[in-house]
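B., you asked whether I could sanity-check this one before it goes into the benchmark set. Here's the sequence:
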Amino acid sequence: MMRSVIYIILLVIFQSCASQSKPILIDSEMETNVKENLSYYLYYPEDYQDEPEKDFPILLFLHGGGESGDSLVTVKRNGPPKLIVQGKKFPFLILAPQNPNAKKWWNTRAVKQLLDSIVDTNRIDKKRIYITGLSRGGGAAWEMAVQYPNTFAAMAVVCGMAPLPYASWINRKMPIWVFHGEKDKSVPFSESENMVAKLKEMGYEVIFTRYPNVGHSAWIKAYETEALYDWFMNQELK
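And here's what the prediction gave me:
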């Protein structure tokens, strides 16, 4: 009798399991809307107002993680904005946005929207849009070169993370200049070394400046390299 009861119970359990709904796969869609408030500095060269018929190049500068947040003045700590404060004059406009998220990656789609807006509302030569970035901003510069291969005429990256698969998606005609300190403990030197090797293997035009006794602050020497700005000015979108 007991065995019959147990058998009936097990039979009910198995039938219950068998009658349960099977997994299903549905297809649907949802429209998303992501907003980002970007504060920024915009530098105009001396002759911008004096030559109203001339279109000028523009350099997009993406700072590192240390300058992220809600205090725009911190963007002046490094790179071209720092040099502007010190009195250096550039022959092109410079757009320097601030990543408002201290612990997050750059929202590169938002940056591109800002860049497009600045280009559309100023006298910009669309064949001479340049990009540069340091550390976290350097990684974002690599990313933007992948996402928008037909936008930038040249790119300079300082100690930025460089995923090797990116090499297959960057505009092969865009000149690239990479800087990195060999003693970097924050972003390993190998990030740039391996990426440069891969790019050269694939036929890209790449300049690689390595600093033997420099750590993560390679941007100090990199952005004080006067030849860098002359190099930018000689590039045009191909």
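One thing to flag: The helical segments are 2-18, 79-85, 108-120, 136-147, 189-201, 219-223, 226-233. Otherwise nothing jumped out at me.
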